[in-house]
Each structure stands twice: as C-alpha cells, then as structure tokens.
Amino acid sequence: MLDAGEFDSAAARVGPLVEHTPLRECAALSDRLRARVLVKAENLQHAGSFKIRGVLNALLTWREKGDLPAGIATFSAGNHAAAVAYATAQLGIPAVVCMPPKAVASKVDAVRRYGGEIVFTTDLVGACAEVIAERGYRLLHPFDDRTVIAGHGTVGLEILADGPVPDLVLVPVGGGGLISGVAAAVKTRSPATRVVGVEPLGANAMSHALRRGAPDPLPQHPHSIADGLTAPFAGRHTLAHVKAFVDDVVEIDEQPIVDAWWPLMEATKLLLEPSAVVGLAAILTGAVSYDDGSTIVLVLSGGNTSPENLRRLTPDPPARS
Amino acid sequence: MLDAGEFDSAAARVGPLVEHTPLRECAALSDRLRARVLVKAENLQHAGSFKIRGVLNALLTWREKGDLPAGIATFSAGNHAAAVAYATAQLGIPAVVCMPPKAVASKVDAVRRYGGEIVFTTDLVGACAEVIAERGYRLLHPFDDRTVIAGHGTVGLEILADGPVPDLVLVPVGGGGLISGVAAAVKTRSPATRVVGVEPLGANAMSHALRRGAPDPLPQHPHSIADGLTAPFAGRHTLAHVKAFVDDVVEIDEQPIVDAWWPLMEATKLLLEPSAVVGLAAILTGAVSYDDGSTIVLVLSGGNTSPENLRRLTPDPPARS
User: Fold this and answer.
1) Would the pTM of this model clear 0.90, i.e. be above it?
2) Are B149 and B212 in contact (CB under 8 A)?
C-alpha cells in the first residue's frame, strides 16, 4: 500500500511539469446543494485530464533509475493514451497506444498531435502485448501501477493544500487509478474526510471487483456515455487501495450523467467530458448523501469531449417562462 | 480621458471583490497559430463575464462618496444585467434590468438567481428611463460611463501583471466598454502593444461610430450569434477612448464566429459564449495579422451561453480517418 512519503516524492517529481490546477469554489452549486462546493479542475491539466500526473511519475521514476525503456506501449480509451503521447514526447521516447475503434475523436486527435502511434483494436490488452513483444517496448499500465497511482495522488495533495478540509470528496472511477491515489493521499492526512467513488452502472468494474473480492473482468463489454470510465476490469493494486481507503463506491445510471453535464458546465464555465460529471450526478440522484453545509470537492477528471458528445448531452432549451 | 491613476484606483476598489481570473497559456493554439497564445479567462469571473468589474467600480465609487442611490436601473442583452443583479445584491440595493425578449436564457436565469427584477422590452432605453422616473432609481450605463470603463480596465492591468508583455491583445467589442478600459490601461503602460477590437458585421456599432465620427445608433437593429456584442450604439466616452488608444477595430462575419467557437473551447477546455471567440475568429479569417512568434492575448469576455447556442454552434463530428 502506498504511504504518505510516496505521494510527497511524486509531488516533488511531477510538480514542475504538471499544472497545479485550480480548486474553485462554485457559488451556483453551493447555493443549489446547500453546501460549500469546490471543483478541482483537472480538465485544465496538460493533455486535458489528470492522467499526465501518473504517467509522468512513472516515466520520471524510471529515468531517475537510468531505466527508461526504448519505447512505451499502453492501452486506453483515450485520456491515458493522450497523456502517454504527451509525456513521451517531452522525454523523447516513442509510444504506441492501443485504442478502441470507437474512441472519442478528440482523444484520438490529441494522441496524434503529440506524435503518438495508434493501433485501433478491440483486443486492447492482446494488441499491447504484441507491440511489447515485437518492439521491446515497456507497458505503462493505465491504472494498475503503484507509481501511476502515486502520481494521481498529487490531485489529493493539491486539494488539501489549496482549500478547506473537505467533508466529502467525490471521484470518478474507471479502473480506479485516480481514486486510489486521491483516497490514499487524502485519508492519510485527513482521516475524517469521506472519499466516495462514482462509476456508471454500465461500466462498474470496481463495484464488480469489490463484490467478487478480486479484479475479475466484467462479464459484459463496458459501455457508458462516460467513455473515460469504461475500463473492462479493475486492478490488483487499485482494488487493494479502494478497499483500504475509500468509504464507498456508488453506481449510477446513464441518464443522471446526461442530466448533470450541462448544469455542471454552466455552473463552472468549464468544458467537461461526461466522465467528469458523475460526482454531481451521484449527488443529484441521492446516491451520495451529505449534511447541509458540508464542504464537498468534486474532482473534475477531464475535458476531452467531442462535438458528438455535445450533441448527445445538450439539453433541449427550456421554454421561456 | 482616463489616466493610469484611475485604473490603479479601480483595481484597489474592486480587487477584493472580483476574481483575479487566470491568464493561461494555450499550447494547442500556440502550435496552431505559430505564436505564443494566452487567454484571459473572464468567463470564470463572478456572474460569468468581465462586466462585474465596471459595475462594482461604479457602485463602490458612489458608496465611497455617500451617494448610493435607492436602486439601480439599467439595460443590457444579458451580461451587464447579470453583473448588476449580482453586485447590487452584494450591496443590498434593488435593481431593475431592461432586457430584450430574446435574451439568452442563462443570462435571464442569472439575473433572477441574483434577485434582479427584469423588464422584457424592445425599447431598452425608453423602458429604463421610465423606471428611473417612476422609482427614483439611478441609471448604471452598460458601457458609456468613465467609472465603468475604469473598472473594465483592470482586465488590462491583470494581463500585464501576470504574463509576458503582449505584442497583440484582441478584445471583443459591443458598446466598447471593455476595449476602452483594456486599451487605455495597456497602452499607457505598454505603448508598443497593439490593441485590436473585433465586432460582428451585423452588430458593428463601434465601426459605425468611427466612420461617422459620432456614436450614432446603427441604422438596423443589431443581430449576431455573439449576443453579448449587440449594442445598438457605441458611446461618447467609449468612442473617444477607442480613437485615442485602440490600433484597429475589425468587423467579422457570422460564420467565422461559429467556426471559431468549438476549436477555442476544445483548446482551452473553457465554456465560452460566442462573443468570447471573436478574437480567434478574426485571426483565423486573416482579418488581423501578426508576426510568427508574437505573444497574443485573447480576452475571453464571458461564458454565459445556453443549450440553444450549443446546438447552433456545435460542429458536425468529423469523419473518422
């Protein structure tokens, strides 16, 4: 299990290269929820999501040890892919990312813009293993990696450093890398803070793993408008961290995600991908409760969305009253 | 004409009550435009636009003199209205805002949320005069007011304080309050910086005033997707400041505004109203030129947009290549 020192090391390592993103208080949401609501705007992070934190922590740790590989291979629905392409370009090594054919266009474009090579495949893990075998590249796992988790934990450190002690932190859950890091970093410093994960019912790898007691793959192919959360399985490390540090993981339906998207964009004036809004969706549906006046932090995980998503998510204009 | 000292006074007055908004470097735009592009994110300002700066400067100036009126009356397409409602609520005095019936729903909602009273009317100036006569309220002009202009100038001060000296600052123009303040504040400190205004061809009150040599009303009712820029006339003070401090005001068509909206949202991960993107539109159409490697600041004036606008502005998804 990661300890406090590993998060401090990660912060020192990646701090100069990542955005210390704003933690912004949101008056419109605070009024609406009768709470003090702050958002951690990781959509403003380099490459458009928190992922760069873990990726850079892994790559820089290898470099410190004189152990940078010839290239990186990975698999991802998009945000990890973009982060790997961005970070490897900075360090001057090549990267191959295996992506599903239906990956969001803007995430594909981001990988290309940063110079990453893409393999479109439905067999993400298999294709990635092939690249590793053929080229001698090294796998950088999108979430189930202690160093990646430690890097993501810097989100939690910044939340504690920049704002009031939160009563509740809500974190989107895919494979569990972000929540593992945030929960471990926050709970070791502020044990009274509740850390709750939120995942789509159609892409509930972590809830599935918690019920099974092991990170077994989902029986169905995961599917959600929150494309960033569609990991087909949780991980050994992430399951262990979630069991140790996370108070609850809740599952929510698709419609609440759609319904939360515009209100959260309008309240924050930030461009958000659907995955980033599941925390608010969980509150608005009552899946997560809190006392009036609580200090709540919503981790807005990313902003890599597409015109296609905008069309699907934009509500009908209200009739003028 | 406003001098440097008046901007410093305005900054001291409104500084504690407004957001010092981020000036963010945008790598994706810098690459695309072969320049160093920074954005001043006034969409993250209280009430969703820069307007609160000028409004608060006016109200606080009156309060300093012991001269706060019984109430405020004003007219606005939306952002000034929302700012007046927000600011008067803070100071505990009532406000009536006269708005066009077609005002963007989210701007109407914002006025209501802050407790402002709305009169929907096509005769903005006449209805406002009536409220003033009947209730003894005082007009707070949406742009043609020296104190309002001085408040808006704090945007310029923050740009100079937070970033490199810009070669070019691009500012959206409606009635001219923002550009008057920004240009005067920037030019008195950095005379080599070019300050260029951008307005829609269908709502070109300032270009019209410059051609006429007087702030005469537009012959047609102004119309643009950039609803925040549809002032029916420029002002005496704003025309004078634009003539004295602004290098150029360019007019652009509607389609370039539509075309610039998504790319600027995607590059910045910020929610922007159409008015905020006219600066990028002017660059992409070649209406404004610059040398490669220039430092360019785009003033993103606001983020109060609506689902209706999203539907009109979202591009068709590109075919997967």
Assistant:
1) yes
2) no
